[in-house]
Specification:
The protein has 488 residues and is of the alpha/beta class. It has 15 helices and 15 strands. Helix 2 packs antiparallel against helix 10, helix 4 packs parallel to helix 10 and helix 10 packs across helix 13.
Length: 488
Amino acid sequence: MELIFEKSIEGRTGFCFGSSDVPDKAQISEKYLRQDEAALPETSELDVVRHYTRLSQRNFSIDTHFYPLGSCTMKYNPKFTEMLSNLAGFRNLHPLLAQLSGGERWTQGALQVLYELEGLLCEITGFSAFTMQPLAGAHGELTGIMLMAAYHKAKGNTHKKYVIVPDSAHGTNPASAALAGFEIISIPSNKEGGMDLEALKAAVNDETAGLMMTVPSTYGLFESHVSEIAQIIHQVDGIMYYDGANLNAVLGRLRPGDVGFDVMHINMHKTFATPHGGGGPGAGPVGVNEKLVDFLPVSRVVQKENGMYALNYRYDKSIGYIASFYGNFGVLVRAYAYILMLGKEGLRETASHAVLNANYIMRKLQKHYKICFDHLCMHESVFSASNQLERGVHAIDIAKFLIDQGIHPPTVYFPISVPEAIMIEPTETESKQTMDRFIEKMIEADQLSQTNPQAFKEFPKTMPITRPDEVKAARDIKTSFFQKIASP
């Protein structure tokens, strides 16, 4: 490749942009010069700033709108932790520096964060060790299932092929187990919303590799028979997997490792207020008890006798690497700072507020929307818009109505076992005033469904893109673009 312009400065070679370093035409080969002026728009800085500011104001974000997005925990991310993750000593480290000869001495702070965060997570959850590598909750799930598979392989349990998943589980649970090569058995819920124990007992046998549970469940309910369920699974040498998506509801009150679980992942954005949305960045650390420690991914951060931190790769039974380097480090720094900032009592208080807020909304709306389980919920509650459907208004219609009110819609049509489901999670970070306004708008939607149900077909009215004709979109799919890129 021919070099256009090169200048040496202090022994380095490259492009230089000082006022005396700008090349003139004589220094550039003729064939690289423009024949005409560049067709660049003549726009003032003020107009450009206003354009992008207006675009940003059209965005829904947790900094601008209420996000009662059930099962996804869209809560406020403190700016304090954002600042700490951007400290130069963290931000400017190259991921490979710790592996270089002598590089450990330049990365002690970063390695200490990973080491101490692991210790904090062990204390919070009751597990023996954690890996920080997984890059998202679903990635953590897959890692946990791989650890389950490694455990059975090491014991010669070649007949273990079934993973049991309740019907109230997150959709990623059966997907992760299937991706790891297991077959899935689904267990229905009973009328109280818990797992059907008789169906579970009938499904468990010597071929059961393990069971995946979310506690509290996707229904927002605590599984009161969790210890009995763990006993049933352990009797056939199965592994109990804890989906940590809803850990924020039980912080400081329940440690999964203490009630029979062997492995879990933590969705850091849901519990420890790290960024979420837009596909990342994410973090899904995985914790294990003693019988799975040897299978954890490498490398692991250890503290040597001299107090220095180092990376250890010497684990013969490890499942190996499951991600590049050591996880999304910047996200983990935020979680570390968040935990230190709140402390034991602060974390416990966040769980109390999350549960209080969810029950407050549930009781305020129960006269207007059908609730699936009429008893205390945990961090979220599940409603059904079946009453509104009788008037011709669907859950999706209510979601579109809320957009015009400046409120992000709750999760709708999930869990799939609830008809016209509306799942609401206010989180612990929302004020009573914000929740009261949301409640007011939900009641307004119910009243409008009674007086003018046809009005819902027009929502949202205030967005740049309004509601499409959903029937036409489903029946008249334009495939020309896909046909074009698929053609030889």
